[in-house]
Design a protein that fits this description.
Elements: E1 10-12, E2 21-24, E3 30-33, H1 35-47, H2 52-66, E4 68-71, E5 87-89, H3 91-95
Parallel strand pairs: 3-4, 4-5
Antiparallel strand pairs: 1-2, 2-3
Length: about 110
Amino acid sequence: MKYEEFSHINIIKDENNPFCVLYEYEDGSRFYIEPQFYTMLKGFEEHHREDYPRILKRMEEVVRRNKKVIFTADFEHPQTEADDEYIILEIFDITNPLQIFVEDKSRGSDYGD
């Protein structure tokens, strides 16, 4: 699967992770994008269109600084299997430092079973 935001970055085929895309910058920095992370990223684009370029820029900065990153929806249970050199980040690890927040308006029912 190719994502338009990252179409300028080289894709590396990783047989061990067929559901996640592995990208590599010209400096050798690599990152995986898991499908659920991408869905969340697109949600930020929809709700924070003016901030979306800042989010993408921050992702690139983090990857170039850390060299190996997995972008996942759940850092405790990532889909991607990679060596221990990769750091695992969720969308909020990118957006919170930028002061871009999503208000969680969902809540449980007021009624018991």
